[in-house]
Amino acid sequence: MDLLEDGGGGASRLGASLGARLAQADPGDRDVAGVRLDEAVHRAQNGFENYLDAYNNVPAIGHSHPAVTAAVGAQIATLNTHTRYLTDPVVDYAERIVAKFPAPLERVTFACTGSEAVDLAIRTARYGTGNRGLIVTEHAYHGTTHAAAQVSPSLGPNNPVGDHVALIPSIDTARAPAHEVATRLLDSVSAAIADLNERGHGVAAVILDSVFSSDGVQVEPAGFLAPVVQAVHDAGGLYIADEVQPGFGRTGEWWGFQRHGIVPDLVVLGKPMGNGVPISAVVGTVAAQERFGSEVRYFNTFGGNPVSIAAATAVLDVIEQDGLVEHAARVGGELLSGLQSLMGDYERITDVRGAGLFLAADLGSRDAGLSPDPELAARVVNALRDEGVLISASGPAAATLKIRPPLPFTSNHADLLLEKLELVLRRETRA
């Protein structure tokens, strides 16, 4: 279900030169690396193929956005140093980004990748609380550094989590009554807290992706995370919101955690922050960061370097100037309505849900257990690619269609996606 297919390109040469890889397709899949990427739609230009990108959340404001390319080019032509040298744009950006968060989230530390930021958040929580235990969902993905991989069970059985990590069941809002979602999650977290205390680790933090992307995109009902924050605080731990995927306006609000009416202790930022230029951050409260910040030496050679800061500043500028947060809410609502309509026509769609431009559709059977159909999901994803539309699949059974386009995705793009999805469903689900 990756974007690779055969043709003698990169896919066929993966094993010859690349080492460890995450979720690349098997050799023999077609290579679509030769794609011109511009804004939300890949333009047919210079022999490149044309794709509607409804999946890539890294180029948040659109592929090759001129504001980012201009800012990066100007900065790298002027000055780029490691971070022992402080430049005004770094401070300017720090002030702007923390202003996007509710009080008391008012300190930011920069890194290069989401994995690094998760690692840093874990270190901060452990040092500040004196505890080691961490709680994540059983299909979570939070990164690939040593510490982040240990809280990423979705990496598979050969990437075991440590004894200090307690796994809780994945949230499944399609199968749980809405009024029970918060209670079930709280019960799971409470049991994990007791387990970690019994093992002698205590609780340093609960780490949750605010939209539970690898758990199948779970966003409803709004507010179900609030009891968890209170429970982890009562246990002496911190709440870490992983906003690497939902952050920067994708959910129709600046941050995915906002729909739950909570204020995390630490927030992890990454992927879309620099529109593809590597930069990440941990934003936190003074209380959560003070001890680590004053007693532990932290240095990151490239974390918050001038070029990456220039890219990140351009991203903020475009999101604000183009009203992309409100745009994501509006177009995402249109797309969700369209998916709901398709669900009424195709019984193999068992649930649809979404927040802004982060949407999901489960494929399976409408039996008592809503049995998932990962084979159908794979066929739909690949058939859509053949129709020139890029999405992917997620969830415990890989049977959830995951849709998360660049934020400039328009109503016309949404209509085209729905048109192609209906075409593929009609073809793939007929008897």
Describe the structure.
- α11 (about 375-385) crosses α12 (about 410-430).
- The strands form 4 sheets. The protein has a 7-stranded mixed beta sheet, sandwiched between helices. A 4-stranded antiparallel beta sheet has the order 11-12-15-14, with helices on one face. Strands 1-2 form a two-stranded antiparallel sheet.
- A hairpin with a 2-residue loop joins β11 and β12 (about 360-365).
- The longest helix has 22 residues, at about 180-200.
- It folds into 2 domains: about 35-60 and about 325-430, Aspartate Aminotransferase, domain 1 (Alpha-Beta Complex); about 65-320, Aspartate Aminotransferase, domain 2, CATH 3.40.640.10.
- The chain has helices spanning about 15, 65-80, 90-100, 115-130, 145-150, 180-200, 225-235, 285-295, 305-320, 325-345, 375-385, 410-430; strands at about 5, 30, 50-55, 105-110, 135, 165-170, 205-210, 240, 265-270, 280-285, 350-355, 360-365, 390, 390-395, 400-405.
- Mean pLDDT is about 90; it is low at about 1-10 and about 20-45.
- It is globular.
- Helix content is about 35%, strand content about 15%.
- The chain has about 425 residues and is α/β, with parallel strands linked by helices.
Taken together, the total number of domains comes to: 2
CATH architecture of the largest domain: 3-Layer(aba) Sandwich
Mean pLDDT: 91
Order of helices and strands: EHEEHHEHEHEHEHEEEHHHEEHEEEH
Q: Which regions have little confidence, pLDDT < 50, spanning 5+ residues?
A: 1-8, 21-46
Write down the CATH class of the largest domain. Answer: Alpha Beta
Number of helices, counting only DSSP H or I runs of 4 residues or more: 12
**Secondary structure: helix percent:** 25-40%
- Class by helix and strand content? alpha/beta
